[in-house]
Amino acid sequence: MAKKTAGTPDENTLIDLSELFKIFGDSTRIKILFTLLEGERSVNEIAAALNMTQSAISHQLRILKTSRLIKAERDGKLSIYSLADTHVASILNQGLDHVNE
Description:
Order of helices and strands: HHEHHEEH
Strand content: 5-15%
Oligomer: single chain
Distance between the termini: 34 Å
Number of strands: 3
Structural class: alpha+beta
Helix content: 55-70%
Largest sheet: 3 strands, antiparallel
């Protein structure tokens, strides 16, 4: 059994981190996040940008919202989606930097 060092997070935190990284394991979700990195979008705008159905995008948006990577605000009957905070943009940009090295 591996010894826990002073800097190692507790087991629950590690599980949460693992779940977060699983969300980034789907290319459609990554495409949605990069689209939202450019600015707020409705489901229809995201679907058009990615050439996908609204249903497919809505499914992925639910997962991203549950994971607190995006947020939604109502504008009349529309939901407008955006990145939840600057951490999401940092994760995307650092990941891109890493794969481009």
